[in-house]
Specification:
The protein is of the alpha/beta class and 276 residues long. The chain has 2 domains: 2-67, Helicase, Ruva Protein, domain 3; 89-274, Rossmann fold. The protein has 12 helices and 11 strands. It has a 7-stranded mixed sheet with strand order 7-6-5-8-9-11-10, with helices on both faces. A two-stranded antiparallel sheet has the order 1-2. Strand 10 and strand 11 form a beta hairpin.
Length: 276
């Protein structure tokens, strides 16, 4: 049988040759997943042996990752803030930078009694469920144009035990009637000409409709004006370098108290404003 140390070395080499940037970390995560342990426990017991079944399972998962399938899809789950969510090719992988968007949402509804929140383009339900988790009593509605995505959001609602209303709807057809205290969206903002420059994990695997789109940010901002209560807030995730343009859009639409937020890497990440 193979030891964990040997398996990790071989797995790291395979993923490095496949071009995976975080080959060692990915290999460690996959090995810990197969052995049903933690990465720290794995490091503490490098002489642990893999039986044939574990070796075969690791080989199967590595083959998927070698094709540059996102690690989250290979695992079938991914962490987002305090939650672990089901994730597969029906939805985007929840990203750390989107956690900044949740923080801004929580700040905007702090002090509001039983706020009503609408998450537009919910995907896996990450934003909606994180708000429901961290702001108990919030009435959250999660909307998406993709039935497949809504199925994942429902799965995650069940998995986490958090209650959100899940509704089907295309943002270009308008938003559900309010009044809402907060509308939040991580809309598709990759431009068509930019898709080929993205890493294979994103370009070749994640759902194109959730990634690529023109006019989605504008559509959410315009529609939200008519469904937010007076003093209600809109929070939008933006592309790097796009905060200024989106802030100008919100200003033209009559939003006030505009704020922009960068992520931990200093990249443009969120724009927010309040209705009058």
């Amino acid at each position: 049988m193979t030891t964990a140390a040997t398996a990790l070395t071989r797995a790291t080499d395979r993923l490095s040759r496949a071009g995976c940037e975080s080959a060692h970390v990915d290999a460690e995560i996959l090995l810990a997943h197969v052995l049903e342990t933690t990465r720290s426990a794995l490091r503490a017991d490098t002489r642990r042996e893999l039986d044939d079944a574990a070796s075969d399972e690791l080989d199967r998962l590595l083959a998927r990752r070698e094709r540059r399938e996102p690690l989250a899809y290979v695992l079938g789950e991914w962490g987002f803030r305090r939650l672990t969510l089901n994730v597969d090719a029906r939805v985007l992988v929840p990203r750390p930078e989107t956690e900044i968007v949740v923080e801004r949402c929580l700040a905007r509804i702090a002090g509001v009694t039983r706020p009503r929140v609408l998450d537009v383009g919910t995907g896996s339900g990450a934003i909606a469920l994180a708000i429901a988790d961290e702001a108990p009593g919030t009435r959250v509605t999660a909307m998406d144009a993709s039935q497949d995505a809504l199925d994942v959001a429902r799965e995650n609602s069940s998995r986490t035990g958090l209650t959100v209303e899940v509704v089907h709807g295309d943002l270009f057809d308008g938003l559900p009637d309010g009044p809402w205290d907060l509308v939040v969206s991580n809309p598709p903002y990759v431009r068509p000409h930019e898709i080929d420059a993205l890493e294979p994990e994103v370009r070749d695997w994640e759902p194109r409709a959730a990634l690529v789109g023109e006019g989605a940010t504008e559509a959410v901002a315009r529609a939200a004006v008519s469904v937010l209560r007076s003093g209600g807030a809109l929070v939008l995730e933006t592309a790097d370098g796009d905060n200024g343009r989106v802030a100008d859009l919100l200003h033209r639409l009559g939003y006030v108290e505009l704020e922009t937020t960068s992520d931990l890497a200093g990249r443009d990440r969120a724009v927010e404003g309040v209705t009058t």
